[in-house]
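User: We ran a pulldown and think these components assemble together. Before we commit to crystallization trials, I'd like a predicted model of the whole complex to look at. Sequences follow.
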Amino acid sequence: MNISTLLRQGVLTVRVEGELDMHVADEFRQVVDNAIDSYGVKNLILNLQGVSFIDSSGLGVILGRYKRINPAGGRILATDVQPQVAKIFELSGLLKIMKIYETESHALECL
Amino acid sequence: MEIRNQVKMSIQSLSENVGIARITAAAFAAQLDFTLNEIEEIKVAISEAISNAVIHAYGHPDGIIEFTMNLYDDKVEYIITDIGKGIEDINLARQPSYSTDPERMGLGFVFMESFMDELDILSKQGQGTTVMMAKKFQSNVAH
Ligand SMILES: Nc1ncnc2c1ncn2[C@@H]1O[C@H](COP(=O)(O)OP(=O)(O)O)[C@@H](O)[C@H]1O
Ligand SMILES: [Mg+2]
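Assistant: Here's a predicted model for the assembly, 254 residues in total across the polymer chains.
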């Protein structure tokens, strides 16, 4: 898995590549939490263009980050989601708390 | 019905092996002409079952998971067996959002059930768990 984080217009963007399962869940959580803490941001854009697979372990990390930032009014916006991953989001009910946008710039416009 | 092909693997309970198991399961399923979408569904179901054995059954890297794949004319079947902790109440464990771990989603069995056509769980506390699941192959040829 590859993860990069960047700060743009006060929004943390996380770009992930790989398969989001239990094997990478800890690293994914640590990298995102560190970035949230060090930038002190409220909102998170999750670019999932490079994510070809996700299961409930991956979903758990995303939901966990939402629970961290939501008390301060923060949101998670997912972008560039591959269809098989979007299907898992839908089935899990995660789309109730996280909206999907076509691209990072679409997501940025909505914040 | 007759088994056309069989592959068995013994998997050490390490998170690395979850990906290896689901890729192998996908390659095995590709012997039937499943759609890409169906193969993705199989990958999620296998990922959930193997993850459960690694996390809940053992919780340490020294456990062994037996993974059997059976190919039939019209379906593919996967059997995942651990000799770990076992499940106290299977009906409860299958409920959406039920997890014994507050950090987890409780969606593993939900995904297995939605993505496969058959799901059977046998478990005994202190002895282990066997999860059997199968996906039917719907031929696209019109009859
Ligand atoms: N192989 C197993 N061995 C022991 N317990 C299991 C096993 N598989 C599932 N369980 C139990 O069933 C519960 C529900 O499983 P699941 O639906 O995959 O949700 P999750 O993994 O998110 O907890 C688990 O929390 C665990 O208590
Ligand atoms: Mg699970």
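Residues 22-39 of chain A form the longest helix (18 residues). That may be worth checking against your pulldown data before setting up trials.

User: Thanks, that helps.
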